Amino acid sequence: MSVCRNAHQEELFNTYATLGRSVAKAATQNDADATLDHDSWQTISDEGIWRIAVPTELGGLGGSWKDVIAALEGLSTTAEDLGFLVTTLGHLGSIKVLLDEGTPRQKARWLPRLLEGVIGVTAMTEETGGSDLSRMQLAARQNGNGFIMSGKKVHITNAPVAQLGMIAGRIPALGKKKDITLFFVDLEGPSVRIGEIEDNLGIRTSPTASIEFDDVPLTLENIIGQPGDGLRVLYDIIAFERALYGAMAAGLIENHIMRTYTRVTERHAFGKPLSVNQYVQGRLTDMKMGAIVCRTLTYAAFEELDKGIPTASILCSATKYFAGENLLMSAENMVQLFGHVGYGNNEISRMLRDALGMRIAGGTSDIQRINIFNQMTRLQATMPVEYDDIPDPLVMQEDMKIPA
Ligand SMILES: Cc1cc2nc3c(=O)[nH]c(=O)nc-3n(C[C@H](O)[C@H](O)[C@H](O)COP(=O)(O)OP(=O)(O)OC[C@H]3O[C@@H](n4cnc5c(N)ncnc54)[C@H](O)[C@@H]3O)c2cc1C
């Protein structure tokens, strides 16, 4: 496994790091306004970020997902805007689903719009809960050759600005436990209602809202994968996005380090720079190690995903877990080392507010641990040695939930 960037990836890293600086300039105002940076979004779309890993025959640049990681890491190192980055990550997820699961007609219908930068959402969470997807109620009922979709999703990133949605729901006619299905839906039209923008603590630059579907007519073409195959498709896409969280966190932490390092070398206390104190150095080294863990795990997870190795899911969850935990640790250390300046209502404390959200969005840290344990149990069942004192893996799997 190589975690080094080749010359092309270095170029991508630098290009998107340069574009990220414009995102950072507008981030504090966009946080106050709870709005996405549409200009920068269009700029990175025009630069071709969405096309990087898309085959040339589908209008892409024919690169690899490791090229995408390089671009995302570059952007994350300078953008200082978690909402913008989370939007990027979700957009890449929608593209990956279409590439992996879409029929030629579905690709022709939705891929060009996503490649141009039309924003899509991924909607799983409902009022009944986000961690436990088995409680979802949104349903598409059979109607002639098609379906009628009704139900409500909540806390959906970019719902107020999106035009497309990847929506998890049920087809009740398939029967319980076989009915979860993933739909690609155009969000314009009178039967789709978007709620008020939610007033969140952080990650405000990707505004969240509810989406209500009121008898929206769909056809088979709206289903991604097979009817009833939604959990598998979701599982794959969630794993992919979890792995990307690591690259994003690594870039953001490197940004925290750059800011904090400058501050502690310039600021003096007791006649010397803050940076000569080992307690201060310890905080910075913890931040650096946090970035290294996130970055290395991302590459390891992508390697296992690419090769279809059974432990890939554990690595993806571990990557999301450490991304959330290390980003928060890093942001907290940054605020602490900036002293009273870090505690002001400014970009330093904004990054701490944002980091708190990353432990929840994309599946909470505790849900990642649950997933890791479930996967361990599943793998244990395939081991040649028998142990008497572990729970029956089949019973554990029966309970396994795939979290948002
Ligand atoms: C900024 C932001 C953006 C979001 N964007 C989207 C989006 O675009 N699309 C979408 O579908 N959802 C989105 N969400 C929702 C998110 O996926 C959910 O908030 C998350 O999955 C947790 O679900 P919940 O909020 O219902 O918490 P709950 O499921 O009610 O959980 C509450 C707490 O209990 C813990 N918990 C739950 N079950 C267990 C258990 N068995 N053992 C131990 N602890 C447990 C959880 O870890 C959590 O800490 C977003 C959330 C945030 C904060």
List keywords for this structure.
404 residues, alpha+beta, Butyryl-Coa Dehydrogenase, subunit A, domain 1, Butyryl-CoA Dehydrogenase, subunit A, domain 2, Butyryl-CoA Dehydrogenase, subunit A, domain 3, 4-stranded mixed beta sheet, 4-stranded antiparallel beta sheet, 12 helices, 10 strands, binds flavin-adenine dinucleotide
> What is the tally of helical segments?
12
- The average pLDDT score comes to 94
Number of strands: 10
CATH topology of the largest domain: Butyryl-CoA Dehydrogenase, subunit A, domain 3
Shape type: globular
- Strand order across the largest sheet: 1-4-5-8
Secondary-structure element order, N to C: HHHHHEEEEEEEEHEEHHHHHH
Biggest sheet descriptor = 4 strands, mixed
Assigned CATH superfamily of the largest domain? Butyryl-CoA Dehydrogenase, subunit A, domain 3
Short account of what is shown:
The chain is an alpha+beta fold.
How would you describe this structure to a colleague?
The chain is of the alpha+beta class and 404 residues long. The chain folds into three domains: 7-118, Acyl-CoA dehydrogenase/oxidase, N-terminal domain (Butyryl-Coa Dehydrogenase, subunit A, domain 1, Orthogonal Bundle); 123-227, Butyryl-CoA Dehydrogenase, subunit A, domain 2 (Beta Barrel); 231-399, Butyryl-CoA Dehydrogenase, subunit A, domain 3 (Up-down Bundle). It contains twelve helices and ten strands. The protein has a four-stranded mixed sheet. Helix 4 (82-101) packs antiparallel against helix 5. It starts with 6 loop residues before the first helix and ends in a 5-residue tail after the last helix. Residues 392-400 have low confidence and may be disordered. It binds flavin-adenine dinucleotide (FAD). Flavin-adenine dinucleotide is lined by residues 121-125, 129-132, 155-157, 200, 203, 208, 357, 360-361, 363-364, 366-367, 370, 403-404.
